[in-house]
Amino acid sequence: MTTPPSADQPVAxxxxxxxxxxxxxxxxxxxxVDVDVLAAKVQRASxxxxxCRDRIGNARLQIDAVVADLDDEA
Length: 74
Fold this sequence. Notes:
The chain is mainly α. It has helices at 14-28, 35-73. The chain has one domain. The protein is elongated. The N and C termini lie far apart (61 Å).
């Protein structure tokens, strides 16, 4: 039996979160998915998606700030 991922397990970074998400999606897409761990995997995926959205949002803010500074210099 596969140990379900913990929703509160730390995320190592954006790339690691994407890799983990892909692995989870592959596991839950299988016809023989263990329903006993399905909910935990979906919860972990939700945490990872939220993390990735936050990272993308922060990157967008930083990019907008850099572009605004470039516009101010022009």
